[in-house]
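Hey, can you fold this one?
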Amino acid sequence: MCGIVGILARNTQIPPAVLEHATRSLAHRGPDDSGTVLLKDAQPEPLEIGLGHRRLAILDLSLLGHQPMQDPVTGNWIVFNGEIYNFRELRKELEAAAVEFKSHYARPSGANNSYGGTAMQPTRSFTFSCLALVVLIALSGYAFSATVAVGTCTTLVHFATIQLAVNSVPAGSIIKVCPGTYPEQVAIIATNLSLEGIASPAGDAAVILPPATGLVANTADVDTGKPIAAQLLVQNAGPVSISNLTVDGTGNALTGCSPDLQGILFQNATGTVKHVAVRNQVPNGIPNGCQIGESIYVQTAAGHSSTVAVENSSVHNYNKNGITGNDPNTNLILTLNYVQGAGVVPVPGAAQNGIQLGYGATGTIKGNTVIDNIYGDPTVAASANILLYDTAENSGIAVTSNRVGNSQLPIALITLGDDGANLGDGVTVTDNHIFGTSTYDAIDVCTNGNTVTGNTIFNSAESGVHLDASCGIAFGGTTGNNNIATGNTIVESACAGILADTGTTGNTTSPNTYFTVPFPVTSSTTSCTIPPGPTGDTTLAGPTRAKTARKFSPAR
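Sure. Predicted structure:
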Protein backbone atom coordinates (compact mmCIF):
# COMPACT_ATOMS: atom_id res chain seq x y z
CA MET A 1 0.00 0.00 0.00
CA CYS A 2 0.93 3.65 -0.45
CA GLY A 3 -0.70 6.90 0.62
CA ILE A 4 -1.67 9.92 -1.42
CA VAL A 5 -3.23 13.25 -0.59
CA GLY A 6 -4.58 16.05 -2.75
CA ILE A 7 -5.78 19.53 -1.83
CA LEU A 8 -7.50 21.93 -4.23
CA ALA A 9 -7.94 25.56 -3.25
CA ARG A 10 -9.76 28.17 -5.32
CA ASN A 11 -9.15 31.87 -4.65
CA THR A 12 -7.02 31.04 -1.62
CA GLN A 13 -3.65 29.55 -0.73
CA ILE A 14 -2.61 26.16 0.59
CA PRO A 15 -0.26 26.52 3.58
CA PRO A 16 2.76 24.28 2.89
CA ALA A 17 2.69 23.10 6.50
CA VAL A 18 -0.86 21.79 6.02
CA LEU A 19 0.16 19.78 2.98
CA GLU A 20 3.20 18.40 4.81
CA HIS A 21 1.11 17.46 7.85
CA ALA A 22 -1.51 15.71 5.71
CA THR A 23 1.21 13.75 3.94
CA ARG A 24 2.90 12.75 7.19
CA SER A 25 -0.40 11.46 8.51
CA LEU A 26 -0.17 8.69 5.88
CA ALA A 27 3.28 7.53 6.96
CA HIS A 28 1.91 4.16 8.11
CA ARG A 29 0.87 3.47 4.51
CA GLY A 30 4.25 4.39 3.01
CA PRO A 31 7.29 4.39 5.29
CA ASP A 32 9.97 4.39 2.54
CA ASP A 33 9.72 7.84 0.97
CA SER A 34 7.75 11.06 1.05
CA GLY A 35 7.19 13.91 -1.37
CA THR A 36 4.98 16.96 -1.92
CA VAL A 37 4.45 19.56 -4.62
CA LEU A 38 2.44 22.80 -4.72
CA LEU A 39 1.06 23.83 -8.11
CA LYS A 40 -0.17 27.37 -8.65
CA ASP A 41 -1.82 29.40 -11.37
CA ALA A 42 -3.66 32.70 -11.58
CA GLN A 43 -5.56 32.22 -14.85
CA PRO A 44 -8.41 31.86 -15.55
CA GLU A 45 -8.88 32.12 -11.76
CA PRO A 46 -6.56 31.82 -8.73
CA LEU A 47 -6.08 28.12 -8.10
CA GLU A 48 -3.68 26.00 -6.07
CA ILE A 49 -3.34 22.22 -5.94
CA GLY A 50 -1.19 20.38 -3.41
CA LEU A 51 -0.16 16.78 -3.97
CA GLY A 52 1.46 14.53 -1.38
CA HIS A 53 2.72 10.95 -1.53
CA ARG A 54 3.93 8.37 0.98
CA ARG A 55 5.70 5.48 -0.69
CA LEU A 56 5.93 1.80 0.05
CA ALA A 57 8.68 0.60 -2.31
CA ILE A 58 8.18 -2.94 -3.60
CA LEU A 59 9.58 -3.44 -7.10
CA ASP A 60 11.63 -0.31 -7.69
CA LEU A 61 13.48 0.51 -4.51
CA SER A 62 15.55 3.30 -6.07
CA LEU A 63 15.01 7.06 -5.87
CA LEU A 64 13.65 6.95 -9.43
CA GLY A 65 10.30 5.94 -7.99
CA HIS A 66 9.97 9.17 -6.00
CA GLN A 67 6.59 10.91 -6.24
CA PRO A 68 4.94 13.24 -7.15
CA MET A 69 6.22 12.73 -10.70
CA GLN A 70 6.13 15.18 -13.60
CA ASP A 71 5.99 14.55 -17.33
CA PRO A 72 8.74 16.86 -18.68
CA VAL A 73 6.98 17.10 -22.05
CA THR A 74 3.43 18.02 -21.01
CA GLY A 75 4.19 19.44 -17.58
CA ASN A 76 1.50 17.20 -16.03
CA TRP A 77 1.96 15.97 -12.47
CA ILE A 78 0.82 12.67 -10.96
CA VAL A 79 0.61 10.89 -7.62
CA PHE A 80 -0.15 7.21 -8.19
CA ASN A 81 -1.63 4.65 -5.84
CA GLY A 82 -2.64 1.52 -7.63
CA GLU A 83 -1.95 -1.79 -9.39
CA ILE A 84 -1.24 -2.34 -13.08
CA TYR A 85 -1.31 -6.09 -13.61
CA ASN A 86 -0.25 -6.17 -17.26
CA PHE A 87 2.52 -3.58 -16.97
CA ARG A 88 5.08 -5.77 -18.76
CA GLU A 89 2.91 -6.03 -21.86
CA LEU A 90 2.13 -2.30 -21.74
CA ARG A 91 5.80 -1.44 -21.36
CA LYS A 92 6.73 -3.43 -24.47
CA GLU A 93 4.07 -1.62 -26.48
CA LEU A 94 5.21 1.77 -25.24
CA GLU A 95 8.88 1.05 -25.83
CA ALA A 96 8.01 0.04 -29.37
CA ALA A 97 6.42 3.48 -29.71
CA ALA A 98 9.73 5.11 -28.59
CA VAL A 99 8.49 5.99 -25.09
CA GLU A 100 11.45 6.38 -22.72
CA PHE A 101 11.21 4.80 -19.26
CA LYS A 102 13.02 6.44 -16.37
CA SER A 103 12.27 4.03 -13.52
CA HIS A 104 12.92 0.32 -12.93
CA TYR A 105 9.43 -1.12 -13.29
CA ALA A 106 10.38 -4.77 -13.15
CA ARG A 107 13.25 -6.80 -11.74
CA PRO A 108 14.03 -10.48 -11.98
CA SER A 109 13.70 -12.51 -8.81
CA GLY A 110 16.75 -12.18 -6.60
CA ALA A 111 18.17 -9.10 -8.36
CA ASN A 112 20.00 -6.61 -6.22
CA ASN A 113 18.25 -3.27 -5.73
CA SER A 114 19.95 0.10 -5.73
CA TYR A 115 20.27 0.03 -1.96
CA GLY A 116 22.21 -3.26 -1.91
CA GLY A 117 19.28 -5.48 -0.82
CA THR A 118 17.27 -8.07 -2.75
CA ALA A 119 14.21 -7.08 -4.77
CA MET A 120 10.94 -8.78 -3.85
CA GLN A 121 9.07 -10.80 -6.50
CA PRO A 122 5.31 -10.54 -5.84
CA THR A 123 2.91 -13.23 -6.94
CA ARG A 124 1.05 -10.75 -9.19
CA SER A 125 2.80 -8.36 -11.59
CA PHE A 126 2.19 -4.71 -10.83
CA THR A 127 4.15 -1.49 -10.89
CA PHE A 128 3.30 -0.07 -7.48
CA SER A 129 1.95 -2.16 -4.61
CA CYS A 130 -0.83 0.26 -3.75
CA LEU A 131 -4.59 0.71 -3.97
CA ALA A 132 -5.92 1.88 -7.32
CA LEU A 133 -6.28 5.65 -7.35
CA VAL A 134 -4.67 8.21 -9.67
CA VAL A 135 -4.64 11.98 -9.36
CA LEU A 136 -3.51 13.58 -12.64
CA ILE A 137 -3.15 17.32 -13.06
CA ALA A 138 -4.09 18.21 -16.63
CA LEU A 139 -6.85 20.80 -16.29
CA SER A 140 -7.65 22.70 -19.47
CA GLY A 141 -6.91 26.42 -19.26
CA TYR A 142 -4.35 26.17 -16.47
CA ALA A 143 -0.56 26.31 -16.74
CA PHE A 144 0.56 25.27 -13.28
CA SER A 145 3.76 26.36 -11.64
CA ALA A 146 5.43 24.16 -9.08
CA THR A 147 7.76 24.26 -6.11
CA VAL A 148 10.52 21.67 -6.41
CA ALA A 149 13.98 21.10 -4.96
CA VAL A 150 17.48 20.34 -6.12
CA GLY A 151 19.03 17.89 -3.69
CA THR A 152 17.37 15.83 -1.00
CA CYS A 153 17.14 18.21 1.95
CA THR A 154 13.33 18.58 1.61
CA THR A 155 10.34 16.38 0.94
CA LEU A 156 9.62 18.26 -2.28
CA VAL A 157 9.91 16.64 -5.67
CA HIS A 158 13.65 16.82 -6.23
CA PHE A 159 16.22 16.75 -9.01
CA ALA A 160 19.91 15.91 -9.03
CA THR A 161 21.07 19.08 -10.82
CA ILE A 162 19.89 22.66 -11.13
CA GLN A 163 19.77 22.42 -14.92
CA LEU A 164 17.57 19.32 -14.80
CA ALA A 165 15.14 21.15 -12.52
CA VAL A 166 15.12 24.20 -14.81
CA ASN A 167 14.41 22.00 -17.81
CA SER A 168 11.62 20.11 -16.06
CA VAL A 169 9.44 22.69 -14.33
CA PRO A 170 6.76 24.86 -15.95
CA ALA A 171 6.99 28.64 -16.08
CA GLY A 172 6.46 30.45 -12.79
CA SER A 173 7.93 27.66 -10.70
CA ILE A 174 10.16 27.92 -7.63
CA ILE A 175 13.32 25.84 -7.54
CA LYS A 176 14.79 25.49 -4.05
CA VAL A 177 18.45 24.47 -4.04
CA CYS A 178 19.75 22.46 -1.10
CA PRO A 179 23.11 23.35 0.47
CA GLY A 180 25.99 21.77 -1.41
CA THR A 181 28.17 22.27 -4.47
CA TYR A 182 26.78 22.07 -8.00
CA PRO A 183 29.50 21.75 -10.67
CA GLU A 184 27.50 22.85 -13.70
CA GLN A 185 26.72 25.69 -16.06
CA VAL A 186 23.07 26.68 -15.77
CA ALA A 187 21.01 28.21 -18.59
CA ILE A 188 17.54 29.67 -17.97
CA ILE A 189 16.15 30.42 -21.41
CA ALA A 190 12.75 31.77 -22.48
CA THR A 191 10.96 31.12 -19.19
CA ASN A 192 10.28 32.70 -15.82
CA LEU A 193 11.10 31.11 -12.50
CA SER A 194 12.71 31.59 -9.09
CA LEU A 195 15.99 29.95 -8.10
CA GLU A 196 16.43 30.01 -4.32
CA GLY A 197 19.18 28.61 -2.17
CA ILE A 198 17.91 26.95 1.00
CA ALA A 199 19.37 28.28 4.23
CA SER A 200 20.96 25.65 6.42
CA PRO A 201 21.26 25.77 10.23
CA ALA A 202 24.75 24.32 9.74
CA GLY A 203 25.74 27.39 7.77
CA ASP A 204 26.27 25.56 4.50
CA ALA A 205 25.48 27.33 1.23
CA ALA A 206 24.35 26.33 -2.24
CA VAL A 207 27.36 26.96 -4.48
CA ILE A 208 27.46 26.82 -8.28
CA LEU A 209 30.96 25.88 -9.46
CA PRO A 210 32.39 25.19 -12.92
CA PRO A 211 32.10 21.57 -14.09
CA ALA A 212 35.12 19.37 -13.41
CA THR A 213 36.24 19.83 -17.02
CA GLY A 214 35.94 23.63 -16.82
CA LEU A 215 33.63 26.18 -18.40
CA VAL A 216 32.73 26.29 -22.08
CA ALA A 217 31.21 29.04 -24.20
CA ASN A 218 27.41 28.89 -24.01
CA THR A 219 26.40 32.21 -25.61
CA ALA A 220 27.81 35.15 -27.56
CA ASP A 221 28.10 38.83 -26.71
CA VAL A 222 25.12 40.68 -28.22
CA ASP A 223 27.36 43.61 -29.22
CA THR A 224 30.63 42.05 -30.36
CA GLY A 225 29.64 38.47 -31.13
CA LYS A 226 32.54 37.20 -29.03
CA PRO A 227 31.97 33.93 -27.15
CA ILE A 228 30.98 34.02 -23.47
CA ALA A 229 31.24 31.27 -20.88
CA ALA A 230 28.55 32.21 -18.35
CA GLN A 231 28.17 30.19 -15.17
CA LEU A 232 24.51 31.19 -14.80
CA LEU A 233 22.90 32.44 -18.02
CA VAL A 234 19.45 34.07 -18.14
CA GLN A 235 18.52 34.65 -21.77
CA ASN A 236 15.35 35.97 -23.44
CA ALA A 237 13.60 35.27 -20.17
CA GLY A 238 11.92 36.79 -17.20
CA PRO A 239 11.18 37.64 -14.66
CA VAL A 240 13.83 35.35 -13.17
CA SER A 241 14.65 35.66 -9.47
CA ILE A 242 17.97 34.39 -8.11
CA SER A 243 18.53 34.46 -4.36
CA ASN A 244 20.72 33.02 -1.60
CA LEU A 245 23.18 31.35 -3.97
CA THR A 246 26.94 31.54 -4.45
CA VAL A 247 28.37 31.59 -7.98
CA ASP A 248 32.07 30.78 -7.72
CA GLY A 249 34.39 30.77 -10.75
CA THR A 250 37.13 28.71 -9.09
CA GLY A 251 38.29 25.94 -11.39
CA ASN A 252 37.00 27.53 -14.61
CA ALA A 253 40.03 26.21 -16.57
CA LEU A 254 39.83 29.08 -19.08
CA THR A 255 43.09 30.29 -20.60
CA GLY A 256 43.78 33.14 -22.98
CA CYS A 257 41.38 35.98 -23.72
CA SER A 258 38.44 33.99 -25.06
CA PRO A 259 35.78 33.10 -24.15
CA ASP A 260 34.80 35.85 -21.73
CA LEU A 261 34.20 34.52 -18.23
CA GLN A 262 31.03 35.80 -16.52
CA GLY A 263 29.38 34.72 -13.29
CA ILE A 264 25.72 35.73 -13.82
CA LEU A 265 24.69 37.01 -17.26
CA PHE A 266 21.30 38.46 -18.17
CA GLN A 267 20.83 38.81 -21.94
CA ASN A 268 17.56 40.38 -23.10
CA ALA A 269 16.08 39.38 -19.78
CA THR A 270 14.50 40.77 -16.63
CA GLY A 271 14.83 39.68 -13.05
CA THR A 272 16.23 40.09 -9.56
CA VAL A 273 19.51 39.00 -7.97
CA LYS A 274 19.26 39.16 -4.19
CA HIS A 275 21.51 37.98 -1.34
CA VAL A 276 23.86 36.35 -3.82
CA ALA A 277 27.66 36.01 -3.67
CA VAL A 278 29.52 36.13 -6.99
CA ARG A 279 33.27 35.65 -6.83
CA ASN A 280 36.45 34.43 -8.49
CA GLN A 281 35.60 35.29 -12.10
CA VAL A 282 39.31 35.24 -12.98
CA PRO A 283 40.47 33.17 -15.99
CA ASN A 284 42.10 30.01 -14.64
CA GLY A 285 42.45 31.81 -11.31
CA ILE A 286 45.33 33.97 -12.60
CA PRO A 287 44.69 37.73 -13.13
CA ASN A 288 45.67 38.88 -16.60
CA GLY A 289 45.38 41.84 -18.95
CA CYS A 290 42.53 40.37 -20.99
CA GLN A 291 39.43 42.56 -20.78
CA ILE A 292 37.34 39.65 -19.51
CA GLY A 293 36.13 38.29 -16.20
CA GLU A 294 32.96 40.00 -14.94
CA SER A 295 30.91 38.85 -11.96
CA ILE A 296 27.43 40.13 -12.93
CA TYR A 297 26.66 41.39 -16.44
CA VAL A 298 23.48 42.67 -18.10
CA GLN A 299 23.36 43.37 -21.83
CA THR A 300 20.62 43.96 -24.37
CA ALA A 301 20.47 43.41 -28.11
CA ALA A 302 18.72 45.85 -30.42
CA GLY A 303 14.95 45.48 -30.29
CA HIS A 304 14.97 43.96 -26.79
CA SER A 305 14.99 45.28 -23.22
CA SER A 306 16.47 44.20 -19.89
CA THR A 307 15.60 45.37 -16.38
CA VAL A 308 17.58 43.73 -13.60
CA ALA A 309 17.72 44.59 -9.88
CA VAL A 310 20.75 43.47 -7.88
CA GLU A 311 20.27 43.82 -4.13
CA ASN A 312 22.19 43.01 -0.95
CA SER A 313 24.76 40.94 -2.81
CA SER A 314 28.51 40.44 -2.49
CA VAL A 315 30.83 40.69 -5.49
CA HIS A 316 34.62 40.33 -5.36
CA ASN A 317 37.73 38.85 -6.95
CA TYR A 318 36.83 39.62 -10.55
CA ASN A 319 39.38 40.09 -13.31
CA LYS A 320 37.73 43.05 -15.06
CA ASN A 321 34.43 44.34 -13.64
CA GLY A 322 32.21 43.65 -10.66
CA ILE A 323 28.70 44.59 -11.89
CA THR A 324 28.12 45.82 -15.45
CA GLY A 325 25.08 47.03 -17.38
CA ASN A 326 25.58 47.89 -21.06
CA ASP A 327 23.50 48.88 -24.09
CA PRO A 328 20.36 50.92 -24.80
CA ASN A 329 17.21 49.57 -23.12
CA THR A 330 19.26 48.13 -20.26
CA ASN A 331 18.04 49.33 -16.87
CA LEU A 332 20.25 48.17 -13.97
CA ILE A 333 19.07 48.89 -10.43
CA LEU A 334 21.75 48.37 -7.77
CA THR A 335 20.91 48.62 -4.08
CA LEU A 336 22.95 47.87 -0.95
CA ASN A 337 25.57 45.69 -2.62
CA TYR A 338 29.22 45.21 -1.61
CA VAL A 339 31.72 45.29 -4.47
CA GLN A 340 35.46 44.96 -3.83
CA GLY A 341 38.26 45.10 -6.37
CA ALA A 342 41.72 43.60 -6.08
CA GLY A 343 43.42 46.80 -4.89
CA VAL A 344 46.38 47.93 -6.98
CA VAL A 345 46.47 45.83 -10.16
CA PRO A 346 49.98 45.90 -11.62
CA VAL A 347 50.64 46.36 -15.32
CA PRO A 348 49.84 44.46 -17.54
CA GLY A 349 46.70 43.43 -15.64
CA ALA A 350 43.19 44.59 -16.52
CA ALA A 351 42.02 47.97 -15.20
CA GLN A 352 39.10 47.05 -12.96
CA ASN A 353 35.82 48.88 -12.45
CA GLY A 354 33.53 48.09 -9.54
CA ILE A 355 30.19 49.13 -11.08
CA GLN A 356 29.71 50.18 -14.69
CA LEU A 357 26.79 51.57 -16.64
CA GLY A 358 27.77 52.05 -20.26
CA TYR A 359 26.99 52.37 -23.93
CA GLY A 360 23.44 53.70 -23.63
CA ALA A 361 22.37 51.93 -20.44
CA THR A 362 20.48 53.59 -17.61
CA GLY A 363 19.84 52.73 -13.98
CA THR A 364 20.01 53.59 -10.29
CA ILE A 365 23.00 53.03 -8.00
CA LYS A 366 22.00 53.48 -4.36
CA GLY A 367 23.42 52.50 -0.98
CA ASN A 368 26.27 50.36 -2.30
CA THR A 369 29.77 49.98 -0.88
CA VAL A 370 32.45 49.91 -3.61
CA ILE A 371 36.17 49.91 -2.86
CA ASP A 372 39.68 48.96 -4.02
CA ASN A 373 39.66 49.44 -7.79
CA ILE A 374 43.10 50.88 -8.64
CA TYR A 375 45.30 50.42 -11.70
CA GLY A 376 49.06 50.32 -11.25
CA ASP A 377 49.88 52.88 -13.97
CA PRO A 378 47.14 55.48 -14.61
CA THR A 379 49.05 56.83 -17.60
CA VAL A 380 48.12 53.52 -19.25
CA ALA A 381 44.59 53.13 -17.88
CA ALA A 382 42.52 54.20 -14.88
CA SER A 383 40.12 52.29 -12.64
CA ALA A 384 36.85 53.57 -11.22
CA ASN A 385 34.65 52.35 -8.41
CA ILE A 386 31.52 53.63 -10.18
CA LEU A 387 31.93 54.32 -13.91
CA LEU A 388 29.20 55.86 -16.06
CA TYR A 389 30.52 55.65 -19.61
CA ASP A 390 28.43 56.98 -22.50
CA THR A 391 25.22 56.19 -20.60
CA ALA A 392 21.72 57.04 -21.80
CA GLU A 393 21.31 60.77 -22.29
CA ASN A 394 19.20 62.59 -19.65
CA SER A 395 17.66 59.30 -18.51
CA GLY A 396 17.41 60.08 -14.80
CA ILE A 397 20.43 58.09 -13.65
CA ALA A 398 20.97 58.56 -9.90
CA VAL A 399 24.11 57.71 -7.91
CA THR A 400 22.94 58.14 -4.35
CA SER A 401 24.02 57.30 -0.79
CA ASN A 402 26.91 55.05 -1.77
CA ARG A 403 30.13 54.58 0.18
CA VAL A 404 33.08 54.45 -2.22
CA GLY A 405 36.82 54.73 -1.77
CA ASN A 406 40.37 53.56 -2.42
CA SER A 407 40.29 54.20 -6.15
CA GLN A 408 41.78 56.52 -8.77
CA LEU A 409 38.24 57.64 -9.64
CA PRO A 410 35.63 56.72 -7.04
CA ILE A 411 32.81 58.16 -9.20
CA ALA A 412 33.38 59.01 -12.87
CA LEU A 413 30.87 60.42 -15.38
CA ILE A 414 32.45 60.09 -18.81
CA THR A 415 31.48 60.49 -22.45
CA LEU A 416 33.75 59.61 -25.32
CA GLY A 417 31.65 61.00 -28.14
CA ASP A 418 33.39 58.98 -30.83
CA ASP A 419 30.06 58.40 -32.58
CA GLY A 420 29.68 62.15 -33.11
CA ALA A 421 27.42 62.84 -30.10
CA ASN A 422 28.05 63.19 -26.39
CA LEU A 423 26.08 60.92 -24.06
CA GLY A 424 25.58 60.55 -20.33
CA ASP A 425 24.35 64.03 -19.40
CA GLY A 426 21.82 64.75 -16.66
CA VAL A 427 23.08 62.47 -13.87
CA THR A 428 22.35 63.12 -10.18
CA VAL A 429 25.17 62.37 -7.73
CA THR A 430 23.97 62.96 -4.15
CA ASP A 431 24.68 62.03 -0.53
CA ASN A 432 27.65 59.77 -1.27
CA HIS A 433 30.55 59.26 1.15
CA ILE A 434 33.86 59.16 -0.72
CA PHE A 435 37.34 58.55 0.69
CA GLY A 436 40.88 57.67 -0.33
CA THR A 437 41.08 59.00 -3.91
CA SER A 438 44.50 58.34 -5.39
CA THR A 439 45.86 60.10 -8.49
CA TYR A 440 42.74 61.94 -9.63
CA ASP A 441 39.35 63.23 -8.45
CA ALA A 442 36.72 61.92 -6.06
CA ILE A 443 33.92 62.83 -8.51
CA ASP A 444 35.01 63.39 -12.10
CA VAL A 445 32.24 65.13 -14.05
CA CYS A 446 33.25 64.77 -17.70
CA THR A 447 29.70 65.23 -19.08
CA ASN A 448 27.23 68.14 -18.93
CA GLY A 449 24.13 69.21 -17.04
CA ASN A 450 24.66 67.10 -13.91
CA THR A 451 23.75 67.73 -10.27
CA VAL A 452 26.39 66.96 -7.62
CA THR A 453 25.06 67.82 -4.16
CA GLY A 454 25.24 66.71 -0.55
CA ASN A 455 28.32 64.51 -0.93
CA THR A 456 30.95 64.13 1.79
CA ILE A 457 34.46 63.73 0.39
CA PHE A 458 37.65 62.89 2.32
CA ASN A 459 41.27 62.76 1.17
CA SER A 460 41.36 63.42 -2.58
CA ALA A 461 44.53 63.59 -4.66
CA GLU A 462 43.58 66.34 -7.12
CA SER A 463 40.09 67.56 -6.28
CA GLY A 464 36.87 66.71 -4.56
CA VAL A 465 34.75 67.50 -7.64
CA HIS A 466 36.27 67.98 -11.07
CA LEU A 467 34.22 69.73 -13.75
CA ASP A 468 36.25 68.18 -16.51
CA ALA A 469 36.55 69.70 -19.99
CA SER A 470 38.65 66.89 -21.48
CA CYS A 471 35.99 64.43 -22.63
CA GLY A 472 33.42 64.35 -25.40
CA ILE A 473 33.67 64.21 -29.18
CA ALA A 474 36.58 61.79 -28.85
CA PHE A 475 38.17 63.93 -26.10
CA GLY A 476 37.80 67.15 -28.04
CA GLY A 477 36.80 69.01 -24.88
CA THR A 478 33.07 69.82 -24.90
CA THR A 479 32.26 68.67 -21.37
CA GLY A 480 32.19 69.97 -17.81
CA ASN A 481 29.47 72.55 -18.53
CA ASN A 482 26.15 73.57 -16.96
CA ASN A 483 26.61 71.49 -13.81
CA ILE A 484 25.44 72.20 -10.27
CA ALA A 485 28.05 71.31 -7.63
CA THR A 486 26.73 72.66 -4.32
CA GLY A 487 26.12 71.59 -0.75
CA ASN A 488 29.12 69.24 -0.67
CA THR A 489 31.52 68.87 2.25
CA ILE A 490 35.13 68.40 1.16
CA VAL A 491 37.76 67.50 3.75
CA GLU A 492 41.47 67.26 2.84
CA SER A 493 42.10 67.57 -0.83
CA ALA A 494 45.73 67.86 -1.91
CA CYS A 495 44.78 70.60 -4.34
CA ALA A 496 41.22 71.75 -5.02
CA GLY A 497 37.80 71.42 -3.54
CA ILE A 498 36.15 72.17 -6.88
CA LEU A 499 38.34 71.99 -9.97
CA ALA A 500 36.50 73.73 -12.83
CA ASP A 501 38.62 73.48 -15.94
CA THR A 502 39.39 76.57 -17.98
CA GLY A 503 36.80 76.95 -20.69
CA THR A 504 33.92 75.31 -18.82
CA THR A 505 30.78 77.46 -18.57
CA GLY A 506 27.40 77.62 -16.88
CA ASN A 507 28.47 75.85 -13.67
CA THR A 508 27.22 76.65 -10.16
CA THR A 509 29.96 75.93 -7.60
CA SER A 510 28.79 77.51 -4.35
CA PRO A 511 27.98 77.11 -1.60
CA ASN A 512 30.13 74.16 -0.50
CA THR A 513 32.00 73.53 2.76
CA TYR A 514 35.77 73.03 2.78
CA PHE A 515 38.27 71.89 5.41
CA THR A 516 42.06 71.67 4.92
CA VAL A 517 41.74 72.31 1.19
CA PRO A 518 44.45 74.54 -0.40
CA PHE A 519 42.22 75.94 -3.16
CA PRO A 520 38.45 75.74 -2.55
CA VAL A 521 37.70 76.54 -6.21
CA THR A 522 40.32 76.66 -8.95
CA SER A 523 40.71 76.11 -12.67
CA SER A 524 44.20 74.60 -12.64
CA THR A 525 46.36 72.23 -10.60
CA THR A 526 49.63 73.87 -11.66
CA SER A 527 50.20 75.34 -8.20
CA CYS A 528 49.56 72.06 -6.43
CA THR A 529 51.77 69.14 -5.46
CA ILE A 530 49.84 65.92 -5.93
CA PRO A 531 50.90 63.10 -3.58
CA PRO A 532 51.96 59.73 -5.00
CA GLY A 533 49.43 56.94 -5.17
CA PRO A 534 49.39 53.83 -2.97
CA THR A 535 52.14 51.24 -3.07
CA GLY A 536 52.15 49.71 -6.52
CA ASP A 537 50.86 52.82 -8.27
CA THR A 538 53.79 53.76 -10.48
CA THR A 539 52.70 57.38 -11.02
CA LEU A 540 55.13 59.81 -9.44
CA ALA A 541 54.05 62.82 -7.43
CA GLY A 542 54.02 66.05 -9.38
CA PRO A 543 52.34 69.39 -9.95
CA THR A 544 49.86 68.20 -12.56
CA ARG A 545 48.90 65.42 -14.95
CA ALA A 546 47.61 65.68 -18.48
CA LYS A 547 43.91 64.86 -18.25
CA THR A 548 43.77 63.81 -21.88
CA ALA A 549 46.39 61.15 -21.15
CA ARG A 550 43.95 59.36 -18.89
CA LYS A 551 42.48 56.25 -20.51
CA PHE A 552 39.27 54.88 -19.12
CA SER A 553 38.78 51.17 -19.53
CA PRO A 554 35.13 50.10 -19.59
CA ALA A 555 34.08 46.50 -20.11
CA ARG A 556 32.50 45.62 -23.43
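Confidence is low (pLDDT under 50) at residues 106-141, 538-549. Let me know if you want another pass with a different chain boundary.
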